[in-house]
Fold this protein.
Amino acid sequence: MPHTIFGLDPLWVSTVLLVLAYVTIMTDRLNRAVVALLGAGLMIVTGILSQDEAIRGVDFNTIGLLAGMMLIVGITRRSGVFEYVAIWSAKAVKANPAGVLALLSVVTAVFSAFLDNVTTVLLIVPVTFAICRELKVPPYPFLFNQIIASNIGGTATLIGDPPNIIIGSAANLAFDQFVVHLAPVIVVVMAVQVLITHLVWGRKLHATAEDRARVMAMDERAAITDWKLLKQALGVLAAVIVAFVVARFIGLLPATIAMFGAAVLLLLDSHGRTSEEQTHHVHGRLSELEWITLFFFIGLFILVAGVERAGLLDILARKLVAATGGEMTTMAFTVLWASAILSAIIDNIPFVATMIPIIKGMAPVFGGAEHLLPLWWALALGACLGGNGSLIGASANLIVAGTAERQGVPFKFKTFTLTAFPLMLISVAISHVYLWLRYLR
């Protein structure tokens, strides 16, 4: 047991620090990276963790994977390829509003499986506004669909959503395992979402032949700003995805692959410039990293390491096992639904980071770490899909809402939640059935 300042009970000190950090993050009064780093510092200053223990608590595989993919995606987006695909999709359905609503949702989901959700919506939303203006249709249904689709699509892969990255690193789960175990149910969830939103909005959307002709006249090739960069970026991105798939067979961590891929793309992107130009160019690319997110993760990992060191998470694990009778089916469904409901209310990243040691602590009860897979998939599905439950459930939701309101499209919390929460419950119910059929019968 750690020795704390003034001899205070380390369990209570660490719990208070974690709760204060959670509450402050939820209120948005302070930047979440600042809150996490302050909490991490207090874990050390109060004696809950030594400095060495704090460093060991940081999952650098997660940090490296996030940073590497941020660089690759940031460079790739400059080619204009994502805008190209969005315009092409609208033209592929002959600019039929219902078809555009459905296909842009699918495109958003696919992008979100390989990019982070915020990047995806930042790329798709401006093109969506342009298409809606030409078709003279209300943009709200399209934006709503893209929020829902981004959170659904991000659930399907290791790199699609930060909770999956944390889970994959902590549980030593590979890219192909996420695809094999989660993609099937995500395809079903996405199909149901497209069907429901078509019934709610799609069949009511209409555009004149003249309006549709304006969209058909859009030149998707004009969206490509750098063909050379496009080829380089897509080549590196494809190689990185292939490497993720075979990573566990070649003994490489996802962070190693992502960082190496980012370094190769930076080299290709800087080729042909003078030394001074290269320095300026690389500095610009690195400045686009989401440093707030990276430092938030670092602080969060140390916070969670503190409550784990003090014994709080072990206590919670034992209580959860006792409450569910140590029965895997009950435990998995409890994790799934609790994760979904809570992730609609609070940030799912700190929630998942806290749940991981709790689930790991259950390994002896269920016969070893290899028997925890249903719990990991339940946590991933609940946390990622739960983000669709409210306007504050995920960062992408707030980004789209803010962009929409700047364009004069109201995005009210109550209006969004009245439609989104039932959709979220349906997606989690589908996941419930899937988990039971595949793992728990």
Observations:
- The radius of gyration is 22 Å.
- Residues 24 and 30 are 7 Å apart (CA to CA).
- The mean pLDDT is 91.
